[in-house]
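Hi R.,

Here's the chain you asked about this morning:
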Amino acid sequence: MVDPISNSSAAMSIAASALHAEDARMRVIAENIANSDSTATTAGGDPYQRQMPIFEPSVTKEGGTGVHMKGVRRDLTPFKTEYNPSHPAADAKGYVKMPNVDPLTESLDMRRAQRAYDANLNMIETLRVRAA
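And here is the predicted structure, written out as tokens:
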């Protein structure tokens, strides 16, 4: 017979790992949004480069398969350029490299992460109530 308490603990542990991963994802997204206008400080230099979280499966203490954020990688999408010869980061032709961050994309990613976070939080709450 299957032990409902250990099943609940495993499910809660899996959902908790997803909470931590989504929290980390939201921090990366927030950093991207905060730096969406951050240019280089030197002429012709590179601006802030968008970061993307990397997730991988992980085994929880209860033996379930959860998830964690392994790290981040740089988005290799090309930088946008703007003509602004008076900017300190302008190259010899007067163009400034702008970050490869699209605030709309980041907002949508943030919404997706928030929904996933909320779903896992609801799962934990449901399991906690059932166990009580």
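One quick note: The first helix runs from residue 4 to 34.

Cheers,
M.
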